[in-house]
């Protein structure tokens, strides 16, 4: 054997070294365990087989289909088709019935509630909460305070066409940015904010000139909110005399709304859901407790 083939042995561990040395540190010759190597080789074989059997390689206009022709997208489509087939009869009945009939038919109502709940949790709960309780800027669906009405028909219109969405029939109205656009001075905004708080019986600072705020309100706000501040569902203007506030009832929140306006957006779901799903969602939302 060539003398150069002999590798030094580490005197501490008794293990032969590779002959490599860095700054006095010798590399021990300790190969990987045989079981580990065989596992590694097996994973390579498995990966090659997987790429042959299943979709794996991207192409210019698509991807390899795999020898069994399976895809997750196809599996989902198959499952959806099977679900639609299972629901077929009930879905057809929901399609043919009006909302009032669904509400009065126990079988249809049970089906609509089940489908509506699933649809709500998948698409609406992110904003309105799983129980419809809402959050700041997102309406509570459990109370009886509705900007656009809480009847079955009103809820259906809102769900189908959205609020300030791209749908041509969407519900739309805008609260002007009175401060940002220079329509009101800061003093006027403060005065009207305090007057609005007084409409719902909230405290205002001593010495507040409510008459000045009332005049600003009459000149700029009453056209939508009404002379008495009770709102107008035709334009989605909220009632300012109750204790329900979408963005907060403190003076700074009200002043911020007057300054910058309010223009929240709700998607139009009519183009995403079929009629049966929309009706089911309407029935479910109406049943939260705040429906009229």
TrEMBL record:
Stretches that traverse the bilayer: 35-53
One cellular component term from this protein's GO annotations in UniProt: plasma membrane
Organism superkingdom: Bacteria
Chief subcellular location: membrane
Positions annotated to bind heme c 2: 175, 221, 224-225
Domain Cytochrome c: 111-200, 208-289
Alphabetical keyword list: Cell inner membrane, Cell membrane, Electron transport, Heme, Hydrogen ion transport, Ion transport, Iron, Membrane, Metal-binding, Oxidoreductase, Repeat, Respiratory chain, Transmembrane, Transmembrane helix, Transport
Coiled-coil region: none
Cofactor binding remark: Binds 2 heme C groups per subunit.
Pathway(s): Energy metabolism; oxidative phosphorylation
Cofactor section: heme c
Ligand binding (heme c 1): 124, 127-128, 266
Gene Ontology molecular functions: electron transfer activity; heme binding; iron ion binding; oxidoreductase activity
GO biological process, one term: proton transmembrane transport
Pfam family, one: Cytochrome_CBB3
Protein family per UniProt: Belongs to the CcoP / FixP family.
Chain's role: C-type cytochrome. Part of the cbb3-type cytochrome c oxidase complex. FixP subunit is required for transferring electrons from donor cytochrome c via its heme groups to FixO subunit. From there, electrons are shuttled to the catalytic binuclear center of FixN subunit where oxygen reduction takes place. The complex also functions as a proton pump.
Self-association and partners: Component of the cbb3-type cytochrome c oxidase at least composed of FixN, FixO, FixQ and FixP.
Name the record gives this protein: Cbb3-type cytochrome c oxidase subunit
